[in-house]
């Protein structure tokens, strides 16, 4: 919380060498849960994830990733797909070409930060032959495979690569304006102040949380351990989300979406209910 999030974001590095150790499913679940908590256009949540741990399959994925053989050391690869048809259906070209990618990128960013927070290394892989990955993992034609994420315990500590300064990427009020207003410039000095404030806040929150946990522990007797039930190999069948459950498209066209696209969506919904 607080400072921790900033540290996780800052310390995350692309890791390309992993220990031969599996990723625990509780950690994997938290990563995917963090991914699906990302914001998404119209709350469409068009992301789909395939967790691959089978060594043979990972080898084939490494081949499809233009022979990035280091990927074979990863104990798990998360294959991030987008249900682009849903985006086209609701938001036309903008949905297909932009929102689907934006949504999935934010979800993937959460995976990377959550990996760091749990002591795992990760690497975003964008260079791969999509059709080969689809074939190997039986991914339907209607989905786009947008990213592969290697995850595991790091067997290297990559140094931070050169990153741009704030002054290189931030302008004031209008593009290109770098006027150094007194009290604002240089932005870096605010980072230090911000870090200090965040540190104080984080310490306070941790102290408070400990107080609450201790108070609860005092009142609640320890629970007996739950019996461990063997997990069935077959995942329980889940109901496919029905189209009718899709969120309503916005009443007004957001910037960049023409009103006739919205009209088309309305017509489609109407037809479906007839
Ligand atoms: C869209 C995208 C595609 C990438 N593709 C690859 C890839 O195919 N192989 C790879 O080793 N790293 C890949 N990376 C990782 C970048 O090389 C890495 O993020 C960058 O060098 C900065 O290093 P850092 O992640 O440690 O900050 C990709 C990153 C992004 C965001």
Report on this model:
With 274 residues, the protein is α+β, with helices and mostly antiparallel strands. It is 45% helix and 10% strand. α3 runs antiparallel to α5 (130-137). The chain is globular, with a radius of gyration of 23 Å. The termini are far apart. The structure holds flavin mononucleotide. Flavin mononucleotide (FMN) is lined by residues 13-14, 16, 68, 123-127, 158, 161.
Averaged pLDDT: 85
Strand content: 5-15%
Net shape: globular
N→C terminal distance: 49 Å
From the helix content, strand content and strand pairing, which structural class follows?
alpha+beta
Give helix and strand order, one letter per element, not per position.
Answer: HHEHEHEHEHHH
Trace the largest sheet across and list its strands: 1-2-4-3
Q: Features of this protein?
A:
about 270 residues; alpha+beta; NADH Oxidase; 2 domains; 4-stranded antiparallel sheet; 4 strands; globular; binds flavin mononucleotide
